[in-house]
Write a structure and sequence with these properties.
The protein is α/β, with parallel strands linked by helices. The chain has helices at residues 21-31, 68-71, 87-97, 119-125, 150-156, 181-204, 214-221, 224-232, 266-275, 279-283, 290-295, 297-308, 313-322, 333-338, 340-344, 386-394; strands at residues 12-16, 35-40, 55-57, 63-67, 77-81, 102-105, 130-135, 209-213, 249-253, 258-262, 327-329, 348-353, 357-362. The strands form 4 sheets. The protein has a 6-stranded parallel beta sheet, with helices on both faces. It has a 3-stranded antiparallel beta sheet with strand order 9-10-11, covered by helices on one side. Strands 3-4 form a two-stranded antiparallel sheet. Helix 1 (21-31) crosses helix 6.
């Protein structure tokens, strides 16, 4: 099949965001073909450039200046150094805005107004501009002016109350997720909002202000746990590696390790019981439906746990896969990238880098049959494209 240009080719994004939520959004846009100009503070740049170790290694195995954290979220962008706190830097950004379709920022509410870089000021210069603000708490409400970070939102927004081992078991207590999921999901929602605003602009010819808050996105992400609360009136609690609404859907200890069993319907449950040599549990009236299994969770799980401990992990996985029961090992990240499916999907990519020779990045999960993601360049060095951008877009001389 002959490939067409990537979906967002011809769209230009001015990225005034840093850390994770905003840059995650703009990396999505860059992967889809947009020209993303990352505006960074002179000398220091994005905070995450300094969030190390680990750092990218050079050809001699020595640390470069590029932190692994920064590399995770800035590929396919161009970096421009500009001090927006100076009149000259702010004027430069305003001039660039007239050549851009989208602006993404994650300053405190009202923080860009003093530089003339707020939505109202830039909308007057470019009415077609889609201006996306990513903040902790949104543009209004009693907490609007407060700073917001992923970790504190995971606590405030309820995720830590349902993550981790049960309070009555060893190791119980509040636990954050192993990655900044609030920032990531906020970046994803911001991406969706921007794409929708582009589509709306096709009708109206006008841009708009997008108000994307970490807290809003975090609460929305709680999905069925919110509904559990709405319908029961009881706040869900930590369940460890078990599912609140489905049984058995959890981690089991085998004789030599652990595995996940995730039976999502009645036929899978009965196939599971048969595969582990306990078909009678599939027919037991105490466990005949998922509702009964949830009600009698402790009794059933104790029975299943005793059986699972008697066999090795990989043997169980082989039997369950043959029976069509969803299951799998618990890998570390090195094992994940060694998995044949992950390798077949090419989820690790290497992009040319001026300091490291190449820089490893995780592939975009977005797959298009006719207009695929293009891996144009590694995450840029600070100010790497300043002269190129000013000459190309604004016609500046060297």
């Amino acid at each position: 099949m002959q490939h067409r240009p990537p979906p967002l080719e011809g769209i230009r994004v001015l990225d005034l965001s840093r850390i994770l939520a905003g840059p995650w959004c703009t990396q999505n846009l860059a992967d889809l073909g947009a020209d993303v100009i990352k505006v960074e503070r002179p000398a220091t740049g994005d905070d995450t450039r300094h969030w190390g170790p680990p750092y990218l290694k050079d050809g001699q195995g020595q640390d470069t200046s590029e932190a692994a954290y920064y590399l995770s979220t800035n590929r396919n962008k161009r970096s421009l150094e500009a001090d927006i706190a100076s009149p000259e830097g702010a004027a430069l950004v305003r001039e660039l805005v007239t050549h851009c379709d989208i602006l993404v920022e994650n300053f405190k509410v009202g923080g860009l107004r003093k530089y003339g870089l707020d939505y109202d000021s830039l909308n007057a210069l470019n009415p077609r501009l889609i201006y996306c603000s990513v903040t902790g708490f949104g543009q209004d409400g009693p907490c609007a002016t407060l700073p917001g970070y992923d970790f504190m939102i995971q606590g405030l927004g309820g995720l830590m109350s349902i993550t981790g081992e049960r309070d009555d078991l060893p190791g119980g207590g509040p636990q954050k997720a192993g990655v900044a999921v609030t920032d990531i999901i906020t970046g994803m929602y911001a991406t969706v909002a921007i794409l929708a605003a582009i589509q709306e602009r096709h009708r109206s010819g006008l841009g708009q202000h997008l108000d994307i808050a970490l807290l809003d996105c975090h609460v929305a992400m709680l999905a069925n746990q919110n509904s559990n609360y709405f319908t029961s009136g009881n706040a869900p609690t930590r369940a460890g590696n078990a599912h609140q609404n489905v049984v058995p859907y959890q981690v089991f200890a085998a004789s030599d390790g652990h595995l996940i069993v995730a039976t999502g319907n009645e036929s899978q449950y009965r196939a599971y019981c048969k595969a582990i040599g306990a078909p009678e549990l599939g027919d037991d009236p105490r466990f005949a439906t998922n509702r009964l299994r949830v009600t009698n969770r402790d009794v059933l799980v104790a029975l299943l746990s005793d059986i699972m401990k008697q066999g090795p992990r990989d043997e169980w996985i082989s039997k369950l896969e043959a029976a069509g029961v969803p299951c799998g090992p618990i890998n570390n990240i090195a094992q994940t990238f060694a998995h044949p499916q992950v390798q077949a999907r090419q989820l690790r990519r290497e992009l040319p880098h001026p300091l490291g020779g190449t820089a490893p990045v995780t592939a975009s999960p977005l797959r298009f049959s006719a207009s695929p993601v293009v891996y144009r360049n590694a995450p840029p060095m600070l100010g790497q494209h300043t002269q190129e951008i000013l000459q190309e877009i604004l016609g500046r001389t060297a």
